[in-house]
Task: structure prediction
Amino acid sequence: MSQQLDLHPGTEGDVVVDLASGKVSRRGFVTLTGAAALGTFANSFFGQVPFLNALTGAVPILSDSKGVLLHDVSRCVGCRRCELACTEFNDGAASSYLARIKVGRNLAYTGGSSSGAINVPGKYGNFRIQADTCKQCPHPVPCATACPHDAIVADAKTGARRVDEEKCIGCGLCTRACPWAVITLNKATKKASKCTLCDGSPECARACPTGALKYVSWRDLRLSTPVVQPSVMPPTSTVVCADCH
Amino acid sequence: MPTSGGWTGRTLRVNLSTGTSTVENTLDKYKDFWGGAGMGYKVLWDEVPAGTKPFDPENKLIFGWGPLTGTGAPCGGRTAITSLSPQHPKGAVATGHMGGHFSAEAKYAGWDGIIVEGKSKVPVYIAIRDSKVEIVPCPQLWGSGIYRATAEIVEAMGGSCQVAAIGQAGENLVAQSVIMTNYSHSAGGLGGVMGSKNLKAIGVVGTGSVQIAASKKAWRTEIDFALSIIGSNNQAVVPNSPQPWAEYVGSSSVRWYAAKGKFWGAANPPVETGICDPHDRQSLGLRCFKSDGGTFAEQFTVRMDGCHACPIRCHQDIQVPSAAKWGVDINASNTCTGWWGNGLMANAKVTAGLNVQDAALKILEMSVVGKHMTDDFGLHNNYGTTDRGWKFIYDPDGLGTNKGVKWIQPNVPVAEWTALNAVGGLFDLYEKGDLNFIKAFGKMMATQSGELGKFLAGPVEASLAAWEVNSPGLTAAYHADNKVLWWANGFPKHHSLENGGIVGGLINTGYNRDAQNHSWNQLMATGLPNTVLKGVITNQFKINGYKADSQGGSYDMGDAYDPSGTAQAPTRARAVAAKWAIARKELCDATGLCNWMYPWVPSPLRERGYNGDIGIEAKMFSLATGVDMTTKQFDDEGIRMYILERCLTMRTWGTKDMRHVHDTLPPWGDVANHAGKVAYDGSNYYVTAADWEIALDYYYDELGFDRATGAPTRATLEAYGMKDVADELATLNLLP
Result:
């Protein structure tokens, strides 16, 4: 028995789940679209469905996030209170490296480049500071696709791609898969640290003293934001992706 | 002191002579001094013997911060760097302060402080990546400016790297030099100490965390409260233009400039600062808009800037395309006297023949050129003293005639005098209003070129003494000159009698450099009416346990407040205020907080009767560290640190008679030197010499110092747990 689940009524992020096997795959999506919606049911259990197992060749299709963080370069003052709020109020410890929003690494010279810094972003350049934020990518979600343990799932309430710490083993593949390098491996807990949108009330946006950070309805920020690292995918995922693409 | 947060517990020691680094347990060794300058005093007291000079390898340089560094405690981004000071005539201890993000990054790397000792054989920088510490030879960077050095080190260590570096001025052992970080943040006076150790820079990358002892909920509640009572820069709590939410309007000196129609004009798109209701958390960073170039500079403002964890932003980032014609980056950032060029050339014929618009633009270009000259060479303007000193020796009567003849010509060789006056020479550039003067002036200082370069680069008192031989009376004239604003004992005034009367004066006696103390002075420009402010001051001290002076007398602390530009006779309340201000400066340094923002006596909140909370630092300290502390206990910790600074000064100086050699009133502060002026009539801030002595008596009583000498007594030292210090002073005959 297979059904198409409307996980977030009002969004277009529908996902197909094979209720018999408990799995979702792109191949499955191709063959099963058009099935009936079961929105209420899905909202209650989506996070627990074992819909991905990259080790066996399946690839997740996550519904689109409801929201995303939008950073306004013209308003950012580089105080990094967003990084602090992210870690202190979520983790009980302050950190820049583990923050799910990254400002510190772009503070002096965006991207760490020092050559001809005049009029490139950064304090030593034209003063504009870009915060790196999670794009809450639509399918294919690089971090979720790369995870061999189904540990990156869509949050039932917000659709944020969040780490299921029960499943995460700290392998760090997701940190290599994210084109914007906004997932960090917490060496102490051996868990990936990734933006959760704070249950719909992001601490970083609340902490921003200039309104440079906004929590807005999801929009695709991928093409308007230069990537900062090549997205590395495990072969098991890329082989399956090739079936459809 | 058992703790479960705040500190990392590890202090780094790097010996450049041996090329080794070691780790110390912070709280085993520095538990009574926490960090910052307090840690610096402790290291210098324990390890640097009397007789050591600032540039000796035996001198040490302590980069300090504290348990609130790297946490979300607002305005917690300061670094205090402590050493024997090349600027001071006796080489006494002094602290330079810088903001930026260096201390937070170092904390995330796992360090509560960095002690640098010894001297490298070759130029090096220290590369810190978490617990991994390397000493990296960098001959290619020696001779380069701070910008180039920073760029190379960031490229080598990664984009997150924070760098503290010196320029050519520090390399050349210029006394008026800085240690610089984050493009616009500099610690004054200590660049030469780094240079003497062949240390070009420290780069640090940290991937760790700072633990908060309290629950997430309790910490979040306290931070929310802090952000509700925070003011603008210097804790100004009233906007300086009418706002729909505001009961009062402050004067133009109140640093709350935001308003509708005021834009960061060079932002793309421009950002309007707006009405900034204090309850609107998303406009905290807009309210300050301290435009040092005035209203004209607003159109060139890309954004406001500042330190780690500070929402207020007192640095200004501007983009002035026309500055390119002077061969500098059009982007520039700084604050206050850091915009050096304007002060340096203000009296020249810079704007002659220009229309109003072009004149204003050229003045702004002066600031841009001056910022780059200062911050790349790594020069210190000594709170404006270098500017004022230059004008004094060049044009002492301000009449524009016989420039340089009185003080400079007798002290420089004929060839140098000729070159200074030649076409394209320094004086010629100045007279033509050519901004290349600023660059030439900076290069001359940074390289100590010629006798004039040496004079300006050197410790002021030593420079004056050197020229006194050929120019009798120079030193006395300099000290007495109201425009130079020299305090005494080797340093300029910095919010002294003119900002708080007796309280400001006592604070300015406190250290071996300009006081860098804003605890009390910032009450001068809150924007609140004096009657309201006095009530708030009285209330805040009462509810935080300040009930009586050392003699058991009760007082209203509001009565210690003298509005800016006025002074009244000394009282015990004024002595209590000075002591408290000193404690809070030390505590800001030792915790990592900013004394250009804290303490928060008033707040912008009408519903709180404009009360701030002078206990908030102690509360945040308690929550972050797990060590519970009342406001009074917290303040006592700061006094312990200050007393050790005092003892260190006495040991270096070789005297216990601080009263007569250190705590003296400058001649311009004595009303007797101002014909026609009457003390305490509300028209001036001068005091009588007799009252200065009374003020010192009261001040010493509060601090537990001996009245005859101004030195801490044994009883006081032992009460603060410093019996060992008392014993050593006794052996040196320095105990009263």
